[in-house]
Amino acid sequence: MDIANSQSVSIASSYAQADTADAVSMLMLRKAIDVQATGAQALLSALPQQPALAVEGSLGRNVNTYA
């Protein structure tokens, strides 16, 4: 039995498992980011529109402030 060959197979197997685990982790991270992006987009689209500036009169033409 060749011990060196057995160890190299074991090392190669552990690298393959690590690559698979990394790929799964990256896939889950991307899905989580996509879910967060969808939620953020929904929150942003739910915000009310800013009121338009006044076009006549003396109030609201120079400074656009609202509560």
Which characteristics define this entry?
67 residues, rod-shaped
Provide structural commentary.
The chain is an all-alpha fold. The protein has a domain at 1-44. The chain is 66% helix and 0% strand. The protein has one helix at residues 3-46. The longest helix has 44 residues, at 3-46. The protein is rod-shaped, with a radius of gyration of 29 Å. The model has no long low-confidence stretch (mean pLDDT 79).
Q: How far apart are the first and last residues' alpha carbons, in Å?
A: 80 Å
Task: Report the β-strand fraction as a percent range.
Answer: under 5%
Radius of gyration, in angstroms, nearest whole number: 29 Å
Oligomer: single chain
Structural class of the secondary structure composition?
Answer: mainly alpha
**Helical element count?**
1
* Residues in helix, %: 55-70%
What is the helix/strand order?
H
Point out poorly predicted stretches: none
Shape: rod-shaped
Mean pLDDT: 79
Number of strands: 0
